């Protein structure tokens, strides 16, 4: 036996190992193979290969593991139970950058499925290793580490706090400043995931100076980066007034409106979400956005898009209008009501409809002027239909009813109220009749119109329990008219007349 | 005697009479006593009733007077209260009137200023219009840029394709695939292939260029610009510096103050002042001194009268309470409030 022959055996073994891991990694890309691989016991075979002497085999094994763990949570659990994570974490600190990337990928794939799995990743000390790899020179490694951190922080406040405690935030902020777009994107997404849970976490992100760097990237041409940036800003702004003010102070305001015209719909959605999160806090912040022309831009944006993308815009209009009557008037002046009315008709999904109904309630509840603007857009019958529809969800019905009630209690625009008299059920009718009873005593033209349009007849047909509010309103209306007219329109008047004819004896 | 005799003769009769009268009187005695008691009781009753009536009459008089006194006192009290209430109502009404005016003013001025709000909403509408226009333009520009880059990309792809398929270009002898003789004109690809260089040639050119770069020499001499001609000899003589000559030649005119001032300067300055005054004025009618003097002119009495019909000077009007010597012995009613 020569030395060459001995070495050939090793070479052959190495070659076949390499081939094995490569083909496993290849097979793991297709979902249909996963089950077969799992049943063949791929986990126990891959684990020793992670500790192989050849770095290429290690990397490829990690890659294959990552792909398997990415597929579903059973496999991810298998990775956790196989005690693979400590090995990965250990080698994350030791090995070359390719291996680090692959290891971070496995950690990410495991952590993505559930809070328990993410906790398992944290428990084996992955956070420190990941944070150290955030300081790596290679952007690919940083990206993988930031991604894994983001997936861990995504699940809940405690995990997020653990990520913050590991000191990831300042490094993520540094990553945001890197020139690579992919890295920026992932870092912004991780910051968004960290700050979404609680005001304290968001404050930590803000204290690391994230807002200024995020705000700089608003005009970046890359759409996916913009998505993450706006998402991060809105997650920061949503918690408290102070944080929202910090976001506004980054002078994002006239600039973000341009992003409402972005071709990417998620960018538009996230911009609208950001504006919604800022406006919901105080009237002053809403006023600021209104003065910057934000309401007009959002209304245009609602007109341009379809479906779930509209939702944050609609809610933003509702929040702005809810603060004060002046702001609600600003929404009306910006031609928001017709656009919302279109949304109410066009949208199929219940939750968007209920958000629209809510927004209408907020716009119309302030003064008769506001209610009139809503009523002129012919919204009341649509809301009534939504309320009466038995297919509507309970939430939608409640929202539609509340909106109807708050608008009707202010509405003095009688042409819009007339049709409601004929269609509304008694609990809505109460408010309609109440409005008539308030307006008619003071308006002679309206009294006349009310008779000729058949409203008075309808009012006489209403069966109200004696002593109820509805009965009071009806009698208040009846008091505005001469008795003969009221009697003439009362049901059964013709029979009484005929009876009188029968009883009459000519002299 | 005769009487005695007659009596003795009639003793029996007398006795009988005596007993009869006694019996009769005995018979009526009870009735008569009862009648006497009746009469007495009636009389006494009348007497007592009369006395009681007398007492009642007197009591009524006393009560009447007392009640009248009480009622009058009470009425006075009620009247006082009613008067007080009336005054209070009046004052309240006046207070409401003042408050109404003040609140209206305050709200219009500071809380809900209609004009300011209308102005704001108009401004907002304008701003919205502008934002919409800007965004529309911005979107349009972005769209155009996207279309342009898309078009460029396609063009590049087609060029690449043409380069790759350059061998299918028709020659003089033989028409190519894209240049069928049955077509009216050659295919677009044919034209494109004519215009581009084949990929191989391009690669060769690149190689050559990189070689040039390595050698550091520029083989293509025609790309450089010719240098400017070298100026001839320096001029002789003790001349000033060229810059100085230039400055002297282009020195601006410096007229004296008298020449510089216009001949109508004074009149112009006056007109200017007047114009400034007019521009700075707030009201159309300027303030003129003594324009209200006629209002404070005092009434001048006629020569032939001695009465003063003019008003007493300010401060001599006073309320009743203040003039105490006129109210000697009268209760001074100080403010009801």
TrEMBL record, chain A:
Source taxon at top rank: Eukaryota
Predominant localisation class: other
Gene Ontology CC terms, in alphabetical order: acrosomal vesicle; axoneme; extracellular region; microtubule; sperm principal piece
Keywords: Cell projection, Cilium, Cilium biogenesis/degradation, Cytoplasm, Cytoskeleton, Flagellum, Microtubule, Repeat
GO BP terms in the entry: epithelial cilium movement involved in extracellular fluid movement; filopodium assembly; neuron projection extension; sperm axoneme assembly
Alphabetized InterPro entries for the sequence: ARM-like, ARM-type_fold, Armadillo, HEAT
Gene Ontology MF: a single term: microtubule binding
Subcellular location(s) per record: Cell projection, Cilium, Flagellum; Cytoplasm, Cytoskeleton, Cilium axoneme
Keyword Repeat annotated: yes
PANTHER family: SPERM-ASSOCIATED ANTIGEN 6, SPERM-ASSOCIATED ANTIGEN 6 ARMADILLO REPEAT-CONTAINING
Quaternary state and interactors: Interacts with SPAG16 and SPAG17.
Role this protein plays: Important for structural integrity of the central apparatus in the sperm tail and for flagellar motility.
Protein's name according to its UniProt entry: Sperm-associated antigen 6
The organism of origin for this protein: Aldrovandia affinis
From TrEMBL, chain B:
Organism: Aldrovandia affinis
InterPro entries noted in UniProt: ASPM, IQ_motif_EF-hand-BS, P-loop_NTPase
Database matches in PANTHER family: ASSEMBLY FACTOR FOR SPINDLE MICROTUBULES
Top-level taxon: Eukaryota
Gene3D superfamilies: 1.20.5.190
SUPFAM superfamilies in the record: P-loop containing nucleoside triphosphate hydrolases
Name listed for the protein in its UniProt record: Spermatogenesis associated 17
Any one GO BP annotation for this protein: mitotic cell cycle
Location in the cell: Cytoplasm
Keyword line: Calmodulin-binding, Cytoplasm, Repeat
Region (Disordered) residue spans: 273-293
UniProt GO molecular function: calmodulin binding
Single GO cellular component term: spindle pole
């Amino acid at each position: 036996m020569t030395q060459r022959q001995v070495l050939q055996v090793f070479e052959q073994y190495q070659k076949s190992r390499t081939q094995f891991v490569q083909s496993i990694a290849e097979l793991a890309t297709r979902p249909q193979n996963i089950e077969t691989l799992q049943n063949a016991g791929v986990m126990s075979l891959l684990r020793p290969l992670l500790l192989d002497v050849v770095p290429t085999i290690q990397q490829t094994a990690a890659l294959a593991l990552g792909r398997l763990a990415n597929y579903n949570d059973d496999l991810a659990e298998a990775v956790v139970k196989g005690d693979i994570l400590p090995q990965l974490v250990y080698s994350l600190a030791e090995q070359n950058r390719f291996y680090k990337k692959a290891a971070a990928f496995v950690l990410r794939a495991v952590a993505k499925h559930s809070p328990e799995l993410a906790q398992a990743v944290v428990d084996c000390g992955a956070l420190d290793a990941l944070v150290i790899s955030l300081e790596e020179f290679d952007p690919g490694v940083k990206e993988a580490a930031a991604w894994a951190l983001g997936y861990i922080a995504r699940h809940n406040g405690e995990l997020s706090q653990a990520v913050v405690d590991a000191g990831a935030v300042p490094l993520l902020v540094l990553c945001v400043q890197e020139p690579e777009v992919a890295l920026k994107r992932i870092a912004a997404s991780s910051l968004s995931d960290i700050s979404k849970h609680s005001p304290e976490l968001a404050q930590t992100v803000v204290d690391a100076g994230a807002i200024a760097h995020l705000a700089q990237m608003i005009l970046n041409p890359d759409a996916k980066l913009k998505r993450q940036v706006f998402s991060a800003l809105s997650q920061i702004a949503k918690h408290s007034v102070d944080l929202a003010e910090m976001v506004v102070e980054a002078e994002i305001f006239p600039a973000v409106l341009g992003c409402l015209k972005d071709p990417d719909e998620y960018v538009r959605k996230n911009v609208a979400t950001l504006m919604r999160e800022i406006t919901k806090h105080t009237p002053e912040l809403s006023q600021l956005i209104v003065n910057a022309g934000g309401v007009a831009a959002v209304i245009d944006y609602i007109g341009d898009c379809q479906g779930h993308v509209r939702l944050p815009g609609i809610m933003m209009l509702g929040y702005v209008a809810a603060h004060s009557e002046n702001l609600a008037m600003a929404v009306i002046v910006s031609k928001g009501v017709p656009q919302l009315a279109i949304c109410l008709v066009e949208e199929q999904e219940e939750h968007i409809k209920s958000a629209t109904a809510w927004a209408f309630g907020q716009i119309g509840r302030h003064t008769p002027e506001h209610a009139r603007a809503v009523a002129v857009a012919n919204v009341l019958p649509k809301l009534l239909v939504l309320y009466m529809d038995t297919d509507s969800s309970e939430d939608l019905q409640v929202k539609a009813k509340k909106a109807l009630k708050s608008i009707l209690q202010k509405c003095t625009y009688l042409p819009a109220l007339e049709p409601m008299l004929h269609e509304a059920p008694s609990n809505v009718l109460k408010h309609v009749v109440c409005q008539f009873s308030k307006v008619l005593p003071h308006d002679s033209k309206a009294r006349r119109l009310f008779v000729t349009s058949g409203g008075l007849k309808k009012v006489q047909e209403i069966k109200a329990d004696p002593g109820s509010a509805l009965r009071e309103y009806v009698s208040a209306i009846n008091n505005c008219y001469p008795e003969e007219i009221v009697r003439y329109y009362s049901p059964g008047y013709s029979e009484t007349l005929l009876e009188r004819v029968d009883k009459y004896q000519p002299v | 005697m005769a009487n005695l005799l007659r009596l003795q003769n009639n003793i029996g009769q007398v006795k009988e009479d005596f007993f009869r009268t006694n019996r009769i009187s005995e018979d009526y005695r009870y009735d008569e006593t009862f009648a006497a008691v009746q009469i007495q009781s009636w009389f006494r009753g009348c007497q007592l009733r009369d006395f009681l009536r007398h007492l009642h009459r007197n009591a009524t008089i006393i009560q009447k007077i007392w009640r009248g006194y009480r009622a009058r006192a009470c009425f006075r009290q009620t009247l006082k209260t009613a008067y007080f209430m009336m005054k209070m109502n009046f004052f309240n009404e006046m207070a409401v009137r003042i408050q109404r005016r003040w609140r209206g003013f305050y709200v219009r001025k500071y809380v809900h200023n209609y004009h300011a709000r209308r102005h704001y909403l108009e401004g907002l509408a304008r701003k919205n219009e502008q934002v919409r226009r800007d965004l529309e333009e911005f979107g349009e520009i972005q769209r155009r840029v996207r279309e342009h880059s898309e078009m460029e990309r396609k063009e590049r792809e087609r060029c690449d394709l043409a380069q790759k398929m350059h061998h299918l270009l028709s020659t003089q002898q033989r028409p190519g695939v894209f240049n069928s003789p049955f077509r009216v004109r050659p295919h677009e690809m044919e034209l494109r292939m004519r215009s581009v260089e084949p990929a191989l040639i391009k690669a060769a050119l690149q190689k050559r260029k990189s070689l040039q770069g390595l050698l550091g020499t520029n083989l293509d001499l025609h790309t450089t610009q010719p240098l400017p001609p070298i100026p001839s000899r320096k001029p002789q003589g003790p001349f000033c510096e060229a810059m100085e000559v230039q400055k002297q030649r282009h020195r601006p005119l410096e007229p004296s103050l008298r020449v510089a001032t216009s001949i109508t300067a004074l009149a112009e300055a006056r007109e200017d002042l007047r114009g400034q005054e007019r521009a700075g004025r707030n009201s159309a009618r300027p303030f003129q001194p003594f324009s209200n003097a006629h209002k404070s002119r005092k009434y001048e009495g006629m020569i032939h009268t001695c009465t003063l019909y003019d008003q007493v000077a300010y401060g001599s009007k006073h309320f009743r309470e203040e003039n105490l010597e006129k109210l000697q012995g009268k209760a001074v009613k100080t403010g009801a409030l």
